[in-house]
Automatic annotation (TrEMBL):
Signal peptide: none annotated. GO terms for molecular function: DNA-binding transcription factor activity. Residues 1-39 are annotated as: Disordered. CDD domains: HTH_ARSR. Residues 10-25 have a biased composition (Basic and acidic residues). It holds the Pfam family HTH_20. This is Helix-turn-helix domain-containing protein. It comes from Streptomyces mobaraensis. The lineage of its organism: Bacteria, Bacillati, Actinomycetota, Actinomycetes, Kitasatosporales. Residues 46-124 form the HTH arsR-type domain.
Length: 138
């Protein structure tokens, strides 16, 4: 064997150690999202989360849906999957969104009561303002 070439030797198994099947790594579940308690969210974080029009669209669509009805891929927004994932993270960090995995899908719930307890009227104001703009009543 030449000096820069190495042959791949199979790794010896330790006694009592199970070997991971081929492709098993891809089958592992992704990490569960970390959720922020709305009671711990500063006002600035909440306002910044609601300032973005894409995030407001997500919030508006979640407000119109029942709890846990909307998987991440069901939102019609003009952004890439990576950008959409970041928007969901910002909403989670602001205490607006809770997510849970069900099989290959991640479902969403707007944390309206919890957020309303922390910031009374803010979410209703944002949703009402978006409705007025959409209806041309500005």
């Amino acid at each position: 064997m030449s000096a820069g070439t190495r042959s791949r030797q199979p790794r010896a198994e330790e006694p009592g150690q199970a070997r991971e099947p081929e492709g098993a790594r891809a089958a592992h579940h992704r990490a569960a999202p970390v959720h922020t308690d709305p009671a711990e969210v500063p006002l600035e974080t909440a306002l910044l989360a609601l300032a973005d029009p894409v995030r407001r669209t997500l919030v508006r669509e979640l407000a119109a849906a029942g709890d846990w009805e909307r998987p991440c891929g069901s939102f019609d927004v003009p952004v890439t999957k990576a950008t959409l994932s970041r928007h969901f993270a910002v909403l989670r960090e602001a205490g607006l969104l809770e997510q849970r995995d069900a099989g290959p899908k991640r479902f969403n719930r707007l944390r309206r009561p919890e957020f309303e307890a922390r910031f009374p009227g803010l979410l209703a104001l944002v949703l009402r303002e978006d409705d007025a703009v959409a209806g041309g009543k500005r």
